[in-house]
Write a structure and sequence with these properties.
This is TIGR02757 family protein. This protein is mainly α and 295 residues long. The chain has helices spanning 11-21, 24-28, 32-39, 43-55, 61-74, 79-85, 88-94, 105-120, 125-134, 138-150, 180-190, 214-222, 233-246, 255-263, 273-276; strands at 99-100, 103-104. Strands 1-2 form a two-stranded antiparallel sheet. The protein is globular. It binds iron/sulfur cluster.
Length: 295
């Protein structure tokens, strides 16, 4: 039987210390949001740079930033202008050789067509998400966004390229995906506090859900914020509920710190007294349970 692990009653204080001490500027340089911030000169450009960057957020952070850089080069440095003024055929031509992991240029060109159509219809990604969310909740907002982005282009447009629809999973799909990349995109758009952009004003920060990547899941599981070993939408909800008990107004402010504690190597993901010694959440860590006196 798997033993249930819970954080200590002092966990909220420990997490706040981890947050307050965290070197945001060091880790910002590693994070895709550092590139998005340079491209997001206004809300429209923020949405466009954000959705492309979130879509490319697969693999290590250096490769992700490199992929965003190559995409931006193909767009002559302005993704907003790329969508608004460059013809679809030309976009497809410029992106024909693009590759990042299993993501291909024809898929990004199709995404650019979808964005062009959305903005031409007078909608924005915020309005699509907001309408979906008002119809149910946060997961419904993500579902509305995913459905719109992966739907076929309007009449006579080309069908989505192979693998395109899989780039935008929804928590309401039968797989109950954690939808990490769309959830991350919404975090960037909604939170106004550093390092996020805060271009969306219709979604309360208290409604955000945690973008559950492997680093956040590892530390959340080992701090007892979830008992689930797999990443699913249910895990997202469980971790978010735990963070909301600490900060109901802005629970996802802890996401950047939890994620980059893993990415940076601040957390070795094993017991190592030299590294774990100063860790503010060590009293809550499953790996040190019952071993505090040994430290
Ligand atoms: S105590 Fe060590 S393993 Fe546990 S969260 Fe902190 S750094 Fe990571």
């Amino acid at each position: 039987m798997v033993r249930v692990h819970r954080p200590t009653p002092e966990f909220a204080d420990h997490l706040r210390v981890l947050y307050d001490r965290f070197p945001f500027d060091r880790s910002l340089a590693d994070d895709p949001i550092s590139v998005v911030r340079l491209l997001a000169l206004d809300p429209r450009r923020g949405e466009i740079a954000g959705i492309f960057a979130a879509t490319l957020a697969i693999g290590n952070t250096a490769a992700i930033r490199g992929a965003i850089g190559r995409l931006t080069d193909a767009a002559d440095g302005d993704l907003g202008r790329f969508i608004a003024t460059i013809p679809s055929v030309e976009r497809r031509h410029r992106l024909r050789a693009f590759r990042h992991r299993w993501i291909r240029g024809d898929q990004l060109a199709y995404l650019s067509d979808r964005l062009e159509a959305i903005y031409a219809s007078g909608e924005t990604l915020e309005s699509i998400f907001g309408n979906g969310m008002r119809g149910g909740g946060f997961a419904d907002g993500l579902d509305a966004l995913a459905r719109r982005l992966r739907s076929p282009a309007p009449s006579r447009g080309p069908r989505p390229p192979r693998g395109y629809r899989a780039l935008f999973p929804s928590p309401l799909d039968p797989s109950h995906s954690p939808a990490k990349r769309l959830t991350l995109f919404v975090r960037w758009m909604v939170r106004a506090r550093y390092p996020d952009l805060g271009y969306w004003h219709t979604v309360p920060t208290g409604e955000l859900r945690v973008p559950l990547d492997q680093h956040v899941h590892w530390i959340a599981y080992n701090l007892g914020l979830t008992q689930r070993r797999t990443r699913s939408w249910a895990t997202v909800e469980e971790v978010t509920r735990a963070l909301r008990q600490i900060d109901p107004i802005d629970p996802i402010k802890f996401d950047f710190v939890l994620c980059h504690t893993g990415i940076s190597g601040d957390c070795p993901k094993e017991r190592d007294i030299l590294i774990c010694g100063p860790c503010a959440v060590r009293p809550d860590c499953r790996l040190w349970h019952g071993r505090r006196s040994a430290a």
